[in-house]
Amino acid sequence: MTINCNGNLIDLSTPKVMGILNVTPNSFYDGGKHKEINSIIHQVDKMLSEGADFIDIGAYSSKPSAEFVSEGEEIKRLVHIIKELVETFPTIILSVDTFRANVAKASVENGVAMVNDISAGLLDDKMLETVADLKVPYIMMHMRGNPQTMQSLTHYEDIVKEMIFYFSERIKKARSFGISDIIIDPGFGFAKTLEQNYEVLHKMELFSILELPLLAGISRKSMIYKVLEKTPQEALNGTSVLNTIALQKGAKILRVHDVKEAVECIKLVSKLK
C-alpha cells in the first residue's frame, strides 16, 4: 500500500485526499472557475492548507458528451500551470488527469508525479509504455468507450464481476510494461447508470481481491445530486456521506473538490477502527 512519488514513499494504509483542479472551461462543477494563474494558486494553496496529499490537475473535461479537446490544446493548458505550481509549492505532489501519452509525458517532464488515466490505457496505445518509462504511479479507471460515447455503453450481465475482469486484464498489461505502482478507480459515473453506480459502491470491498489501492471519485457527481434533486453546487453533504461509505468499503484515496470535508471524513472513520 505504498507508492513512490518523486522519490517519496507515500503510505496509503492511511487514506489520503486528492484535491481536484480543473483548468477547463466546461467541467460539470467548477468549469471556468480557475482560469487565471492567481486564482489557481489561491485554490491550490487552500486545498494544501486543508490537508490535500495530492492535487490532480486536468485540462480535458470527461463529463458525459464533453467536447473534444486537441492534444496540443490540452498540453498548452497544462504545462505553464504545472510549472507555476511546482515553483510556488516545491513539495507539492501533482497528478495529471489525462488519457494521452504525450500529455502525460509533457506533464511529468515539468514536475507531475503521477498519471491518472480514465481509460486505463485503452484510448492511447502508447500510454502504458510511456508511464513505465516515466516511472511514476498510475491510476487506472474503469470506463467503456470515451467521454462522448460512454453513457450508451451501460449494459452488463454482472457489473462488478466484469469490472474485476477488466481490471485484472489492464493490470496484467500494465505490469508487462513494467509499471510497478498501480491504483484502481471504479469510475463512478463512467459508462454506468445511476443504479449501477450504487451497486458498485455497495460491493466496492470486492475489489480488494486485486490487492491494489482503491481510489473513489464521487465528489458532487450526478449519482448524488440527481437522487437528492439538487445541483452539483448543493451536493457537498451527499458527497461526504458517500465518501464515508467508500472509506468503509476500502477506499484509500478520496478524489474531491472539497478537501476539508474529505479530511474530516477520514479522521472520523478512522476512529471506528
How is this structure best described in words?
Catalyzes the condensation of para-aminobenzoate (pABA) with 6-hydroxymethyl-7,8-dihydropterin diphosphate (DHPt-PP) to form 7,8-dihydropteroate (H2Pte), the immediate precursor of folate derivatives. This is Dihydropteroate synthase. The chain is α/β, with parallel strands linked by helices and 273 residues long. The protein is built from 9 helices and 10 strands. Strands 8-7-6-5-4-3-10-9 form an 8-stranded parallel β-sheet. The protein has a two-stranded antiparallel ribbon with strand order 1-2. The longest helix has 19 residues, at 159-177. The chain starts with a strand and ends with a helix.
Topology of helices and strands:
Layout: E1 2-5, E2 8-11, E3 16-22, H1 37-49, E4 54-58, H2 71-88, E5 94-97, H3 101-109, E6 114-117, H4 127-134, E7 138-141, H5 159-177, E8 182-185, H6 194-202, E9 215-216, H7 222-228, H8 236-248, E10 253-256, H9 259-270
Parallel strand pairs: 3-4, 3-10, 4-5, 5-6, 6-7, 7-8, 9-10
Antiparallel strand pairs: 1-2
Helix pairs in contact: 1-2, 2-3, 3-4, 8-9
Cα end-to-end separation: 18 Å
What structural category arises from helix and sheet content? alpha/beta
Share in helix: 25-40%
Residue fraction in strands: 15-25%
Give a nutshell description of this structure.
By secondary structure, the protein is of the alpha/beta class. 40% of the residues lie in helices and 15% in strands. The chain has nine helices and ten strands.
